[in-house]
Design goal:
alpha/beta, Rossmann fold, binds uridine-5'-diphosphate-xylopyranose
Amino acid sequence: MEIKNICCIGAGYVGGPTMAVIADKCPDIKVNVVDLNEDRIQKWNDKNLDKLPIFEPGLAEIVLRCRGRNLHFSTIVNENIRNADLVFISVNTPTKKYGLGAGKASDLKWVEACARQVASNASGHTIVVEKSTLPVRTAEVIKDILEASQTFSSKGMQVNTFDVLSNPEFLSEGTAINDLLNPDRVLIGGDNQASIEALSDIYKSWVPSEKILKTNIWSSELAKLTANAFLAQRISSINAIGALCEATGADVREVSRAIGADSRIGSKFLDAGPGFGGSCFKKDILNLVYLCEYFGLEEVAKFWESVVTLNNWHQSRVAKLITKKLYGTISGKKIVILGFSFKSNTNDTRESAAIQICKDLLDEGAILLINDPKVNKEQITIDLGLAPETEINNLDSTINQKGCWLFVDDMNESFYNADAIVILTEWPEYKEIDWNLAESRMRKPAWIFDSRSLIDPENIRKNSFNFWRIGDGS
Ligand code: UDX
Ligand code: UDX
């Protein structure tokens, strides 16, 4: 079974980069990425590579090499499914907002819709691959839908046939291209050996065979949820210890270094921060919690739910301590927010800690001057549910009114009369701030709140700043 033609449904943060890398590494395979969202597809096809719908280091170069050659972006779904030997389902699976499992279970309506679309358009034998993170046993739903539409010839031979595989994505935004090119492992779950081998052959074009793990389909689905739950758990753990460091005089960076040197623990994913964000961690843990509750495992459910509860508490803790340090009131005070994306090197703001922290500061009446190198004003407006002010000069008149915000392109311009600078994302440019200039423009006493341990305290030792950084009780 040789794959010559791939269709990927969903041109998002996962589908886009993953297909770009497959197209780059497998020039003989035609890769069609389809999406219902016309605007998104137009951006993928834009001549100006700065307009690609997602920012990911290294992605634009690959798109430039492959687009129009064997990588195509379009809204033509049915025809591309018909021509495909293999269909990746890479659509979003948000947490259900209402009905059974609301607030925890994943909403599978788009996955189901995709399965139905594949069922009614595929021809010949089609391998359907779950790329989206899905609850365990979703493959069964997809299989049911596909099997119900398998067709038979008059002699009883199957004409349209399907196989379902699980092939979860472990890429991390901001380093997605490197993660795809040099994965720790590729995971393929399924029960049909020929289909597993066909998908495996694609990855073998650049991934060593020993890194391609083959499991049953349920293990593969559960491994993805578990990987994200373990990673998120590490962050809640270190953030919890960070709060204790602040209370006791310890330093969370020193604690991280000390525990990370233990090879059983390992040094990665131990950076205390403003709380984890991103589209996956919260959603996947809540999914896991729902599964545990469904199977009557209440204690297991509670254990994992506490990772999310801690993260929510931690985000509100950061906003509260900013208010407390600024004499308990920030109404009408100018606060510079540096970074809005959920981590650096991405324009993605989904579940970003910055959203809740900014909302809490706005509720206290603050004037926020928000800067981010890749997130635009429109996205922040959607996330905060509040339109920005347009003129920095208007802001003084809003004192004592409800909070407001303004987008600033040039952060140096935002320092005038600001009471505080709050670093929420670890963008490298924030390491280069001219602190003498900032100090000269800010109102005194001026505060810096560094939630990402980005600033070397030595660099501001000679300035008059009050300085708070995450997990530093010294
Ligand atoms: C999504 C899921 O959030 C994640 O759990 C999963 O692992 C992979 O898919 P991501 O690629 O980051 O991750 O989502 P998003 O950027 O929202 O992209 C999904 C795309 O699917 C959107 O562009 C949306 O328009 C498209 N879509 C959705 C379809 O084309 N058809 C549909 O029926 C539904
Ligand atoms: C995550 C998983 O890492 C990836 O394998 C999976 O496929 C999708 O979900 P992603 O959400 O893109 O990837 O980014 P990740 O690097 O995991 O960061 C998630 C959040 O944790 C970010 O808000 C980040 O700032 C935060 N984080 C990460 C910390 O606060 N400290 C750390 O040490 C690491």
